[in-house]
Specification:
The strands form 3 sheets. Strands 3, 4, 5, 6, 7, 8 and 11 form a 7-stranded antiparallel β-sheet that branches. The protein has a two-stranded antiparallel ribbon with strand order 1-2. Strands 9-10 form a two-stranded antiparallel ribbon. The protein has 159 residues and is α+β, with helices and mostly antiparallel strands. The radius of gyration is 18 Å and the shape is globular. Helices cover 19% and strands 38% of the residues.
């Protein structure tokens, strides 16, 4: 928690001058698919389906995000993803998992929805890693180790 230095302190309470600050983590993930945007994002591929590498040379989906994308980045990623298109399913464009994107997120949670068994919480795009090949994206072992550290921290912090 952080408080404005001039705001009054009230024991056991917080007000509008308090801000909850959470540590962000990052992973370099692969874009597996993207959904066509709506409203202001109409005509651009917006909502990204994200995954990590698995032990068998494949990928495991960890979640989706559409946050952190500027208009310039939306235009660039639409062009890049359409060049890698391998199929469509309604409004979802599936792509070859070649683009690496750095994703910031607050935490991981267990998930029955995604094949990795884990899901990103509050994910957002930081940047595309054009300097990295798909083989350099994070592996499921890295993701699981981060989740295990997160669980251990919570258990250690619990009374």
């Amino acid at each position: 928690m952080a408080k404005h230095p001039e705001a009054p302190y009230a024991a056991g309470g917080r007000g509008s001058h308090w801000l909850k600050v959470k540590q962000a983590h990052t992973l370099d993930l692969l874009v597996l698919a993207a959904e066509w945007g709506s409203g202001r994002r109409s005509g651009w591929l917006s909502n990204l389906h994200l995954g990590c590498r698995d032990g068998a040379g494949g990928v495991l989906m960890l979640g989706k995000t559409f946050k952190g994308l500027t208009d310039q980045l939306l235009a660039w990623q639409t062009e890049q993803l359409l060049a890698r298109e391998i199929g469509r399913d309604g409004h979802v464009v599936h792509v070859r998992p070649e683009l690496v994107v750095e994703i910031a997120f607050n935490e991981l949670q267990q998930s029955r929805q995604y094949p990795a068994g884990l899901a990103l919480r509050f994910a957002r795009v930081k940047r595309y890693r054009t300097d990295k090949a798909a083989a350099e994206a994070d592996h499921i072992d890295t993701v699981r180790a981060l989740f295990d550290r997160q669980v251990a921290y919570r258990e250690g912090a619990a009374p």
